[in-house]
Design goal:
Distance between the termini: 11 Å
Shape: globular
Structural class: alpha/beta
Helix content: 40-55%
CATH architecture: 3-Layer(aba) Sandwich
Radius of gyration: 15 Å
Strand content: 15-25%
CATH topology: Rossmann fold
Order of helices and strands: HEHEHEHEHH
CATH superfamily: Lumazine/riboflavin synthase
Largest sheet: 4 strands, parallel
């Protein structure tokens, strides 16, 4: 069931160009989010797909799971992008855990993939490294979009 190479992925995408993907982003650290979205766009370009996805913005990472729950039925898959940077309080720990748990719950309840790229880092430099626009192989937005199509293809093959 594993996609062996990019030709397998491209073939699967060509047969399923109608897959709908939604992207949910946190508005915190907007420069990093913008770079992650550039990664999503670059992945679509590499797959020869139009840059069409619905974008939903929420104030912070804590709100991402609720938005996912409200919109999941409109899509074949979702991508979540956000940034949480560890500070001096316990806030980081609770936001990260609840965000991850909430997204997993929505994914399992609905049987649809939600690609989790909420960056949980110790310092802003770590997030910037994961939102690289010089080398998209280091961009988690790029990786997320590729993961959507790999996951959808694997699921489709598994349930045949």
């Amino acid at each position: 069931m594993f996609i062996e190479n990019s030709n397998d992925l491209n073939s699967a995408i060509e047969k399923n160009r109608d897959w709908k993907v939604g992207v949910v982003v946190s508005e915190y650290y907007s420069e990093i989010i913008s770079n992650l979205l550039l990664g999503v766009d670059k992945a679509l370009e590499n797959l020869h797909l139009p840059k069409t996805y619905d974008l939903y913005k929420v104030p912070g990472a804590f709100e991402i799971p609720l938005m996912c729950k409200k919109i999941i039925n409109k899509y074949d898959a979702l991508i979540t992008l956000g940034v949480v940077i560890k500070g001096d309080t316990d806030h980081y720990k609770y936001v990260c855990q609840k965000c991850a748990d909430g997204i997993m719950e929505v994914q399992l309840e609905n049987g649809k993939p939600i690609i989790f790229e909420v960056l949980m880092v110790k310092k802003i430099e770590d997030a910037l490294k994961r939102a690289d626009i010089e080398n998209y192989n280091n961009n988690k937005g790029f990786e997320a979009l590729m993961s959507v199509y790999r996951t959808l293809t694997s699921i489709k093959r598994a349930i045949k």
